């Protein structure tokens, strides 16, 4: 009864989104659950900003479940990739994102699908949030023709609409992102570009060159430093003279955000996008986050940090657990519901992995294709003068 | 005809020769004298006008009107949005240009000298050239990188390197090296309209050289296809293959050799990658003698590639003598005039090589 009144009261207060199009999973009554709640989030440290994002945010049940589902999917997908790598079905480089899910999901929640995003090589999470299916991601990791890049790119080279990878050269993606922002400004569609880089990349000269031009020309670029405390095996204290990454933009305003809390990330991203979108110029966000895996699959990740540290973060700050606990303790979701979602995700990942291990590799005929776009077919020299291959756009 | 030949010869002699002959009375009305610099500017102007997505960026391209005045007048006509002055940050602005191209614009990046592009090489190759392939065809990159390449008088070692071989090495790039004004205009227009990354190697020595521009080449849709060489001079005895300013030297050498009854066929490569081997092979099958002539360094150079391909292809069995390369000397470019002159292939070097090859 009490809950029913709360629901009605919230509806009357205005804006409670009870979505009529939601699929009813079972005969359980949703009227028992709170449709939305307000949460306190950590205040951000500010640089050259008088005001920061709000310290309170409203989360609807619908959004909460969606963030949960997305983060859990990324988590499970990355763990599946770990498994496949250990089975030698994935080769080469594989940089996993588990622990950092709140960043990718929170950012996507704070921007529009028509906005743009670019990141470095720890990219599987963003590939998913930018619209590529788990199936296509895993199949790209296993190098099959059903992969998003037809098996020709691999872990670090995945692309989608308004998503520019997937970049293997540390720091290179930052000027590229500023360039996408220039295109946004040029085409005057009020779009922004989110340009991500890590604490390791933060010292790259080209990043400062990009900062300079972005500020000079007021490009709609949200620079985001995902500070997971370690650049490969080097901790931030050993790499950077200043670890206040949110201040490193100097004349560019910055904020430091709790990157383990999806709501903080969302709120900060909304704030940043608002700032950027209407001509104020670039802004810089530092997301304090953590990766559970080592730098890549060839790094156990314990030679430069302690297992205790990893365990502590898992226990106290896991982004998925945090969201789940928040929703359950505010009666926004039931444990059963969460279990159902987990089961669905597990199934989706299994099916995707199935596909990724059974889909054939790209055919040899595809070897020389996609050198040039919109071009006539031409001959490509093979490994010897008698081997003449063909390239088609 | 004499004045035409004098125009086709290298640089400084052409203009005075032409003026002395009062060309404005003897030229057909539609043909014009245009310097390579102006031809490049015309190409840029026409393409900026034709497609809104095209824009220029580089150091001093706007207000200063270009370090070599190639972009004179363009900023006044098109404004800040389309002609962008960049700070002196090559890797930064190259990355920005490539990103803009990924997002659908068509940037033309100017390097004040291709020597400065070394700072940007990661973006030209890893962000531009390889991307369409790595993305399995999802992400094209329509961009042109242009600027003066190779030798220029008195600029010394750090400003005189030729990058044709370096960029020509990379799959996913197209590399163009024009010689004449028509080359420059037609090829630059094609490069800008091409949906792929194109490295456009101009040359400072050629900027002020005027050439005859046919009526056809004055049209706004005049394009020269990338990947096709041009026979600048027909001959039966030996094939000279060259690119950029060195073509002028070959033409001069050919004139000298003609007096001894040796007729050279001079091929202007126009494009380094993809290279028009068919034109070279057809010529070699006729002349049976091949000499490549370039300003760049010999090791792993353009000539080395041509010779290797001739060895591997049908042309080899037609050769009556080993094919050879005439190149720049294998040293950093010195400053003193006499030393500098002797670092690049001179007319006498080409003449000497031809006579050695023909055993005369």
Protein model, in words:
The complex is a heterodimer of chains A (393) and B (360). Chain A has 393 residues and is an alpha/beta fold. Chain A has 3 domains: 1-32; 34-358, 3-Layer(aba) Sandwich (Rossmann fold); 364-393, no CATH class. Chain A is built from 12 helices and 12 strands. In chain A, strand 7 (230-231) and strand 8 form a beta hairpin. In chain A, helix 2 crosses helix 3. Chain B has 360 residues and is an alpha/beta fold. Chain B folds into 2 domains: 33-218, Thiamin diphosphate (ThDP)-binding fold, Pyr/PP domains (Rossmann fold, 3-Layer(aba) Sandwich), CATH 3.40.50.970; 230-358, 3-Layer(aba) Sandwich (Rossmann fold), CATH 3.40.50.920. Chain B is 40% helix and 16% strand. Chain B contains 16 helices and 14 strands. Chain B has helices spanning 2-8, 14-20, 23-26, 36-50, 74-82, 90-102, 121-129, 131-134, 164-168, 181-193, 204-207, 246-259, 277-287, 302-312, 337-341, 347-358; strands at residues 32-35, 54-58, 83-85, 106-110, 144-148, 174-176, 198-202, 210-213, 230-233, 238-242, 264-268, 271-273, 290-293, 324-326. In chain B, strand 2 (54-58), helix 5 and strand 3 form a beta-alpha-beta unit. Chain B is globular, with a radius of gyration of 20 Å. The relative contact order of chain B is 0.12. Residues 6-25 of chain B have low confidence and may be disordered. At the A-B interface, helix 6 and helix 7 of A face helix 6, helix 7 and helix 8 of B.
